[in-house]
Amino acid sequence: MFWFLRLFLAHLIADFPLQTNRVFKYKVYNKYGILIHASIYLIITILLSIPYLTSPICVSYIIFLFLLHTIIDLSKIKKFSRNNGIKEFLKDQIQHFITLISVILLPEAKEPKYLNLNFSLSFLNRFYNSDYYILLSIGYFFVAFAGTIFYFYVIKTFGGKNIFYKDGISIKEKYKEVILRTIIFVTYYRVSFYVSVFVFIILRVLEMIINKTYRNIISFLLILTYDFVFIFSMIIFLNALLGT
Q1: Could you tell me if 45 and 6 are in contact, meaning their C-beta atoms sit under 8 angstroms apart?
Q2: Where are the domains of the chain?
Q3: 31-55 CB burial, b ≥16 within 10 A, e <16
Q4: 212: which residues sit within 8 A by CB, 6+ positions away?
Q5: pLDDT tens across 59-80, in order?
Q6: What is the 3-state secondary structure of the chain?
Q7: Are 15 and 41 in contact (CB under 8 A)?
Q8: Fewer Cβ in 10 A, N or C end of the chain?
């Protein structure tokens, strides 16, 4: 699972924070735009697979992931104008996850390969070689960035407010939500579970009231519940993996 965790982190970074509105626009409306996003994914994957690049089989597998990522995204783009909802989002991410988990079939991936850069870059060794830091990073990008997109799809489905515009999500709306989720995530790990729940309720309720992202009380409760389960189930699962 050592390499899988790094590959999954690469996917989260490339698919969410590094898939900016400009990249998204190129990807959807330019004939070769998908290659920009796929190339970013390939670069991040290579950077998080440096110890494995000495193996021709592992390099071939990275190319295989690059091609599959491109094919999956091309399939999604073809359906973009007709279907763009929470089911399509989850289906897309599940397909990517399945391709990544296939790494466990490689004999070369069964043993951890640690990063061993020179002394001046030893902090990168500590980060890369530690499952704790990698899992914490996965949890953060999942909650703050993937969670933001998921939340906007929940609003679109249950609140009736579409935040997805022709050229992507409003940058202001996106990063306001990322900051909100970052505050909740950091509060949990720096303070406590109960304080983070309190912060979640206050910030989320205020955000929903100010932005009017719900239709009625049932819609309000559904959106609040979905987001609460998304954030805190991920954190609890992450804690189980971290052993904390």
Answers
A1: no
A2: 2-117, 133-242
A3: eebbebbbebbbebbeebbebbeeb
A4: 161
A5: 999 999 999 999 998 887 766 5
A6: CHHHHHHHHHHHHHHCCCCCHHHHHHHHHCCCHHHHHHHHHHHHHHHCCHHHCCCHHHHHHHHHHHHHHHHHHHHHHHCCCCCCCHHHHHHHHHHHHHHHHHHHHCHHHCCCCCCCCCHHHHHHHHHHHCHHHHHHHHHHHHHHHHHHHHHHHHHHHHHCCCCEECCEECHHHHHHHHHHHHHHHHHHHHCCHHHHHHHHHHHHHHHHHHHCCCCCHHHHHHHHHHHHHHHHHHHHHHHHHHCC
A7: yes
A8: C
Could you tell me the two tokens for 217? 């009380």
In the numeric block, which tokens belong to residue 3? 């390499």
Give pLDDT tens digits for 181-210: 999 999 999 999 999 999 999 999 999 999
Burial 77-98 (b: 16+ CB within 10 A, else e): eeeeeeeeebeebebbbebbee
